[in-house]
Automatic annotation (TrEMBL):
It holds the Pfam family Peripla_BP_3. Residues 3-57 form the HTH lacI-type domain. One of its GO terms (molecular function) is DNA-binding transcription factor activity. Keywords: DNA-binding, Transcription, Transcription regulation. It comes from Micromonospora chaiyaphumensis. Coiled coil: none annotated. This is Transcriptional regulator, LacI family. The lineage of its organism: Bacteria, Bacillati, Actinomycetota, Actinomycetes, Micromonosporales. InterPro entries: HTH_LacI, LacI/GalR-like_sensor, Lambda_DNA-bd_dom_sf, Peripla_BP_I. PROSITE patterns: HTH_LACI_2 (PS50932).
Length: 347
């Protein structure tokens, strides 16, 4: 028979209410008493009833994590890191996928709002105004997007795009294509802004092709357009598109990097397994997942007493806390010197 809260109270020599506070509000319990109660609970195999604890504390100890496309290899390291960090803080994570659909994203936030203490929105497709609106219903931390007045964890893809373009310029490329990602993507806008500035500074012509679906299929679909554009190098919105593009170019008889250099963004595991190995911008996805969990839990902890949890208003949770994590360029085999004049690249 499972151990009960009464068994733990009897074994540790305290009142039932002290055991309850040990799990629901440990900062209110004497440290020595807390250690003794937790040790007895562990010995007895006692696990507190989360539903009952939620009624007392107003907290479910659940977090929602909504991602744009769970099939994209960019997201699993972030999900795994967020789950590990949440578990360390005695929270559980509910993961949901929107399949790049803004309406589905909004619907999921509303569905999770009553079941979690907060939501992590990763690479959201909703507009900033809509994100602000749903944040009035449940605490929100945004990953890979900047929203004024809301806590955000961003990866500096702008810096990464600049490093990628400078790398291509250093190899002699002056006609470069940018394969854009989804319309409305903050990451896409940042990459385009930084790549455009770096290209102009370096005296290069940047041709923007997109928006495109951010998948391997999406990258392959524009291979012929890249060939006809006459560019000698390409920066893709993400690694999946870059890998798809390389496959598409190969089918057209173009070699990477001998004929066209290709750079991706994300440094997913597959980028190290392709042939040629992909030059890419490494993004700190695991660090973003851990940071976002800590930020969400700190947000609730810092709320005024009586304004914590799901009942807090958007004003209670307003913050300027925004974290920018650094990216770096990883040079592998998919980039090389610009082809010599006169070489046929299919244009």
């Amino acid at each position: 028979m499972p151990a009960t809260i009464r068994d733990v109270a009897r074994a540790s020599g305290v009142h039932i209410s002290t055991v309850s506070r040990t799990f629901s509000a440990p900062h209110l319990v004497n440290p020595e008493t807390r250690v003794r109660v937790l040790a007895c609970a562990e010995d007895l195999g006692y696990r507190p009833n989360r539903a009952a604890r939620a009624l007392i504390t107003g907290r479910t100890h659940n977090i929602g994590l909504i991602v744009a496309d769970i099939a994209n290899p960019f997201f699993p390291p972030l999900i795994k890191a967020a789950e590990g960090q949440a578990r360390h803080r005695d929270y559980h994570v509910f993961v949901a996928d929107t399949n790049e659909d803004q309406a589905a994203e909004e619907e999921l936030v509303h569905a999770l709002a009553k079941q979690v203490d907060g939501v992590l929105l990763c690479s959201p497709r909703m507009s900033n105004s809509l994100i602000e609106q749903v944040s009035r219903e449940v605490p929100v931390v945004v990953i890979n997007r900047q929203v004024a007045g809301l806590p955000c964890v961003m990866m500096d893809v702008g810096q990464g795009a600049r490093l990628a373009i400078e790398h291509l310029l250093g190899l002699g490329h002056r006609r470069i294509a940018l394969l854009g990602g989804p319309r409305g993507s903050w990451t896409n806008r940042e990459i385009r802004r930084a790549a455009g500035t770096a290209a102009r500074t370096g005296g290069a012509e940047l041709t923007v092709l997109g928006p495109n679906h951010p998948t391997e299929t999406g990258g392959g679909a524009v291979a012929d357009q890249v060939r006809r554009s006459g560019v000698t190098a390409v920066l893709a919105y993400n690694d999946l598109m870059a890998i798809g593009l390389i496959e598409g170019l190969d089918a057209l008889g173009l070699r990477v990097p001998a004929d066209i250099s290709v750079v991706g963004v994300d440094d997913i595991a597959l980028s190290r397994l392709t042939r040629p190995k992909l030059t890419t911008v490494a993004t700190p996805t695991a660090a973003a997942g851990r940071t976002a969990v800590d930020m969400l839990l700190q947000l609730d902890s810092d709320a005024p007493r009586g304004a914590r949890g799901r009942g807090a208003t958007a004003g209670d949770r307003r913050t300027t806390a925004q974290v920018m994590l650094q990216t770096e360029l990883v040079v592998r085999d998919s980039t090389g010197p610009v082809p010599p004049p006169g070489r046929d690249t299919g244009a």
